Amino acid sequence: MLRKMKKERYSLFSDGGARGNPGPAGIGFLVFKGKKLIKFDGKYIGISTNNKAEYKALIMGLKQIQKLNIKEIVCYLDSELIVKQIKGEYKVKSPDLKPLFETVQTYLSKIKNISFVHIPRSSNSFADKLANIALDAAEDSQK
């Protein structure tokens, strides 16, 4: 008798940050299927706040999730604020964050099973590194 194969879980790690708040900002994300890295990216987004960068990193990751047609995923972020806003535990009061929050909501409606987990920054080092590489490259090109 064949055993039912265990389905590998998809994970999204995203991070954004600004040097100064606001200041030059970078974003990054990684998508895993089980332990296998299947997609990653990072980019410079110009002058931004930390919170806007966090949202933009998540949105960039969610766009890839949609392109990959992934219907079940766990999203890991080191921004407690963003996770609590998406879960509805905090209201989105900032007029700068509301449109980003609404963009995230449109992606959520297209994904069958999605959850969000707040993780310590130390557990999100690869996404943080991608954001910083993009930011470093932008700063180097301006010298």
Give descriptors for this structure.
single chain, 143 residues, alpha/beta, Nucleotidyltransferase, domain 5, five-stranded mixed beta sheet, 4 helices, 5 strands, 37% helix
Average pLDDT value?
Answer: 93
Low-confidence stretches: none
Structure classification: alpha/beta
Distance between the termini: 65 Å
* CATH topology name: Nucleotidyltransferase, domain 5
Count, helices: 4
How much helicity do the residues have?
Answer: 25-40%
Radius of gyration: 16 Å
How many beta-strand segments?
Answer: 5
Instruction: Give the neighbour order of strands across the main sheet.
Output: 3-2-1-4-5
CATH superfamily: Ribonuclease H-like superfamily/Ribonuclease H
- Per CATH, the architecture is 2-Layer Sandwich
CATH class: Alpha Beta
How is the main sheet built? 5 strands, mixed
Write down the domain tally: 1
* SS strand fraction: 25-35%
SSE succession:
EEEHEHHEH
Shape: globular
